[in-house]
Amino acid sequence: MGAEMVYAAAVAVAVLGIAGGVCGVAALRTGWILPWQRRHVRRPALHGWALLVMGGSLVAQAANLGTFPTGPFLTPPLAASGALLVGILLLVLAQRPSSGRGARSTDPGR
After folding, report:
1. CA 59 to CA 57: how far, in whole Å?
2. C-alpha distances in angstroms, 59 versus 66, 70, 83, 103, 105?
3. Which of 17, 49, 18 is nearest to 33 (CA)?
């Protein structure tokens, strides 16, 4: 793969990360969710944090794209991958209903 292709991929990943970060800020500030995600998201604030974490990890990975780190220089790409996994976990949790602690049950059998 040529150097131009690596830089093009880095730019594309960085743009996706920035777009995710912008959507995360919008979800945190206003509760706005993209239209195709509104049906699934139960907790907009957690969804916003997930998008911010994932956007940041994509930008960090784009910054390291094209380098082949070894040894102690392997830590930033691994940390970015870990952050991406944490963001995915937060997205899954944002789609689940909250635990409802302190809320009354609507089940008449309880």
Report:
1. 5
2. 13, 20, 11, 39, 43
3. 49
pLDDT tens for each residue of 6-32: 888 889 999 999 999 999 999 999 999
**CA pair distance 75, 81, nearest whole angstrom:** 10
Spell 9-25 as b/e; 16+ CB within 10 A means b.
Answer: ebeebbeebeebbebbe
Residue written as tokens 């008449």?
108
* CA distances in angstroms from 18 to 47, 54, 62, listed in the order given: 16, 10, 11
For the stretch 52-108, pLDDT in tens is 999 999 998 888 876 666 666 677 788 889 999 999 999 999 998 877 665 444 444
Q: Which long-range contacts (CB under 8 A, 24 or more apart) does 26-29 make?
A: 27/51, 28/52
pTM of the prediction? 0.79
